[in-house]
Amino acid sequence: MNEPEPMRQIHEIQEKIYEKTKHMSSDERLEYFHKQSEQFKKEMKNVKPAKDLQTFFANLRKKQAG
Fold this sequence. Notes:
There is one protein chain. This protein has helices spanning 5-21, 26-45, 53-65. With 66 residues, the chain is mainly alpha-helical. It has one domain. It is flat.
């Protein structure tokens, strides 16, 4: 099956989450997602809005390459 790149990325993320949480109880899973959401909120406070998308993606590529 030839799926679009964004869908493939979503499926990879879902698979990683499943692998991390498959042996957790409901309470453990809730705690895991709570911690992940708190970490995400902290990271988002440090993100500055991009002035334009071209600059944003250029900086993202540099960060991923380095």
